[in-house]
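Why Septal ring factor EnvC (AmiA/AmiB activator)? Reviewers of the renewal asked for a concrete example.
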Amino acid sequence: MKKLVLALCIALLALPALAQQDANRTSREREALRRTQAALKAAQDNQAGLQSEKAALSKEKELLAQQAQRARSQGQALQAELKQAQQELARLQAELDAQKRQTAEAQAAAEANEKQALSLQQQGRVLQALVDERTRVNLSLTALLERSTKLLAEAEAKNQQIYAVGLTLIEHLRKRTPYDRAAAADPLFGLAAVRLENEAEQLRSQLDLQRLVR
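Here is what the prediction returned.
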């Protein structure tokens, strides 16, 4: 009995402790439930965030795919432009090479023309020297001709004077005095008269030959 009472006493004494334990356990369970609910809500929120992020990533992936497609299209367009630019560059290079050849040919032609011009200038100087020499010769010949003409005129004047004197002498020989006419009747003097007449004719012939006539 004492043991039963003791047990009851112990039980009564333990009831507050048990009640406290139950209260503590209930509080812990509530805290655990609250934490579980919070964790569940956090998990749900995290899942919703993951779903949203997945949707955003899917949308971003689609955008990236579109951008990649545009990039491929742009790359193809750039490749075509690059090919066209290379073709244009090759055409311009060919034109540049042709212009260089034309420039070289023009330079060679200019050098040839310059050499020809120098040769023509040299020939011109030679011809000018010849012209100058001929001009000097012509001037000398003109002066000589003028001097010769002057000398010829002087010689003609002197010749005319000599011719006139000769004619005067011939006429003087032909004009005989009465004594000369009487002597001409004599055979001897007649021969002398004939001889004088012949000499006068010979002298006249020589004067005619020596006379200068223009």
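The chain has three helices and no strands. This is the kind of structural detail the renewal will allow us to pursue systematically.
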